[in-house]
Amino acid sequence: MAGPPAPTLEPVTADRTRSVLREVFFLRLWAGSTASGLATWAMPFILGLAVLHSAITPTALGLVLAVRTVGFLIAVPVGGVLADRWSRRSVVLWSSLAAAVATPVLAMALGRSVALMAVAGAVIGAGQGACRPAFQALTAEVVRPGRRQQANAAMTLAVRVTTLAGPALAALLATVLDVPTLLLGSGVLWLAAALLPPRGNPAPAPAPAGARAGAGAGAGAGRPGFTAEFADGVREARRHPWFLGGLVALAAVIATGYSATGVVLPMVSRDRYGTEAVLATAVTAYTAGALLGALLISRWRPRSQGWAALAALACYGFAPLSLWLPGPVVLVVVAYAVAGVGIELFNVPWFTAIQREVEPRRLARVSSLDFMVSYGLAPVGLALIAPAVDAFGPGPVLGLCTLVCFLVPAGAALVPTARHFSRGGARSTPETVA
């Protein structure tokens, strides 16, 4: 899978106010990542329109989305190993092409074969999962260290903008296009995700004989198998206590706070306030808050970035707290806006620290652990919270979710090296600002 030499990346400008989006190689990467994110978001929304149009049943929708999630979770570790073993650009290319090819199959099978829809959904999910750690590692190859926080903020900003504007755009397109055509459009987005990103600087050359297993990035005789290479990525993750503590905090918040949003918020909107408008307003406020958070963290550099990020993550606790305590609608809306700000004040420094601290040849594997654990526990929380509410009532469940969101990140802040998200203490880069 070797290719032509990597292009020479643009030099870092001395003007720190210059947008990273003006650097052509990052702009191509950003456009490809944005296209993949938009395609990922579009699929469940478009299939939801298919249910409204009676093209498929809700059961078929649930099955396709479930196998997509399974495909995603299986492919994330595989993509991490492949992206460290071969070219990160190649993994993005082939995984996105797989999703692009499977999308027309899904459109063709719509309403005709649930089994074929499920197979296509699994392939699309696998493409999504394989490209995620590769995109993370490719960002570290394309962007200089001093520009990565701004680059990660630009990445997440694009996700939030498409999430905020996407439903209205899709609803508008649905007035003139049918569901299969909309699905084909998402396939075009996957094609863009495959073709747009540039080839980054390759990882360092393989370690000489006698070095730790899995250290090399290129092919060669005696290369360990998949399990050994993935285990090597786990060992690399264990070298960073701040990563393990932060990952536990992130997984706990997603499994509880996110589940409260997905399951309890609709119930509270209906039963306490008597209108579904509260649900829509709160979710919109969360997305708008995340957009604001991404803009803020693109420029803000706290001295203790790890502690600041974990404190921001804990702000998600205000979301279940607002559902737990009786109060006006504005309390719920403000709480969700604060949670949105907090999640991006955590995400961007988190991604940047992983790109900075993790050994480059193992970066994709460690990133795959991040996605696998955080995304993997989300369905567990969603599956358990509804039975828990039925058994104990919403009050105790929301109270527990609130405590978990506040206390687990606080506990993670006590982990050694968590203060700066760095094993070496505070790191000074061209981007760091007191």
Give a brief rundown of this model:
72% of the residues lie in helices and 0% in strands. It has 14 helices and no strands.
The low-confidence parts are 1-15, 205-221, 428-434
Q: What's the end-to-end separation, in Å?
A: 43 Å
Task: Work out the helicity level.
Answer: over 70%
Helix-strand pattern, N to C?
HHHHHHHHHHHHHH
Major sheet details: none
Q: What's the overall geometry?
A: globular
* Binned strand content: under 5%
SS-based structural class?
mainly alpha
Give an overview of the whole structure.
By secondary structure, the protein is mainly alpha-helical. The longest helix has 31 residues, at 241-271. Mean pLDDT is 83; it is low at 1-15, 205-221 and 428-434. Helix 3 (88-109) packs antiparallel against helix 4, helix 10 packs antiparallel against helix 12 and helix 10 runs antiparallel to helix 14 (394-413). It has 14 helices and no strands. The radius of gyration is 22 Å and the shape is globular. The relative contact order is 0.14.
Write the layout of secondary structure elements.
Layout: H1 24-52, H2 58-85, H3 88-109, H4 114-142, H5 148-174, H6 179-195, H7 226-238, H8 241-271, H9 277-297, H10 305-314, H11 318-324, H12 329-357, H13 363-392, H14 394-413
Helix pairs in contact: 1-4, 1-5, 1-6, 2-3, 2-4, 2-7, 2-13, 3-4, 3-6, 4-13, 5-9, 5-12, 7-13, 8-9, 8-10, 8-13, 8-14, 9-12, 10-12, 10-14, 11-12, 11-14, 13-14
